[in-house]
Amino acid sequence: PTRCMRSSLIWSANCATCSRIWSTGASMCEKGIWVSDIKPDLGFSGFFLTRCRAAARAMLLDSSGTIELPLSDGTRLDSGRLVWISSRPVQDGHRPPIISALPVQKWSGNPFAFIEPDLPGYPSAKSLHDHIEHIADPEIRQLLYAFFGDRQLLRAFMKAPASIRHHHAWPGGLATHTLETLDMASRITTDLRQGESDLVTAACLLHDAGKAYEYTAGGTRLSRRGDLLGHEVTLLELLSPALDSIWERGHPKRLLLLHLLTAKPAPRWTGIRHPRTRLVSLVRFADQWSANRSHAVL
User: Fold this and answer.
1) Of 151, 143, 64, 75, whose CA–CA distance to 107 is shortest?
2) Which parts of 12-138 are beta strand (E)?
3) Distances from the Cα of 116 to the Cα of 9, 92, 121, 217, angstroms
4) SS3 annotation, 127-187
5) From residue 297, how far is each of 150, 168, 224, 293, 294 by CA, in Å?
6) Dihedrals φ, ψ of 285, to 5°?
7) Interatomic CA distance for residues 56 and 64, integer angstroms
8) H or E stretch covering 10
9) Mean pLDDT of 93-114
């Protein structure tokens, strides 16, 4: 096999599985079928995380669920890999067998498609994925793919609380709070132009992402980074490489997104800028609504 120049797959021109991927029009950022949509009488194909079970069975995982399927004779599957899976339909009511599996070296699509079920924020993963996919602007989508494509950051994000004692103060609370903020924002931005709505969605998803490194592993106290910098500075540091990969420094969308993330009422001499657009108020309202909702539940 040789490396395919069009993807991160290990590609072979004579491989039926490789040919099947390209014949279906799939790309390295298209998920294919979700676990929750797999049916016994339908063949399927798509990308999945894998866990080996018994010798002739495998567990497929994505952010919609898990399923255990049989392996056809001769099919090999390594555990802990991202793999393009193909299956054929069966008519006896049994689960469809895996007939081919092609490992993937790097996923270039939505990082929230493949969140491990043992992470505390897992219940929010599929909905977070869907909010990103509703963004029409491909540059904003790619920015979020690049930012959360850092697997260490993504895992920390899905584990972290949103605070120590204030709101969503439990492991996975950051993912829950972010999803609630996005849900509310989607309800109050229906009158916006698509480009404005996309920026609000991105700001809501990112606004507390620096909290992934704000706390110690147990979430009971501030980390050294959290104590010295705080989550807003941490976010800007983490976001900078992704921003640089999409837009030049003075690009209007870059500046507006940063404004949505940083603007707030404060004395001008602090260097913090007052909101210049109502989009800031929409993000802040959705954020506060989620925090207040958490207090009400508690």
Assistant:
1) 151
2) 44-52, 57-62, 65-70, 82-87, 98-104
3) 22, 31, 9, 18
4) HHHHHHHCCCCHHHHHHHHHHHCCHHHHHHHHHCCCCCCCCCCCCCHHHHHHHHHHHHHHH
5) 32, 10, 30, 6, 5
6) -65, -50
7) 23
8) strand 10-11
9) 84
The identity of residue 260, as a single letter, is L
Q: Which domains does the chain have, with CATH numbers?
A: 2-104 (2.40.50.140), 113-297 (1.10.3210)
Q: Are 101 and 84 in contact (CB under 8 A)?
A: yes
Q: Is 54 exposed, middle or buried (0-12, 13-18, 19+ CB in 10 A)?
A: exposed
Contact between 178 and 205 (Cβ < 8 Å): yes
pLDDT tens for each residue of 193-250: 999 999 999 999 999 999 999 999 777 899 999 999 999 999 999 999 999 999 999 9
Q: Which residues pair with 82 in a beta bridge?
A: 49, 104
Cα 41 from Cα 193, distance rounded (Å): 42
Q: Are strands 65-70 and 2-3 parallel, antiparallel or unpaired?
A: unpaired
**Which has more pLDDT, 288 or 267?**
288
Q: Whole-model pTM?
A: 0.86
Q: Is the pLDDT of residue 54 over 80?
A: no
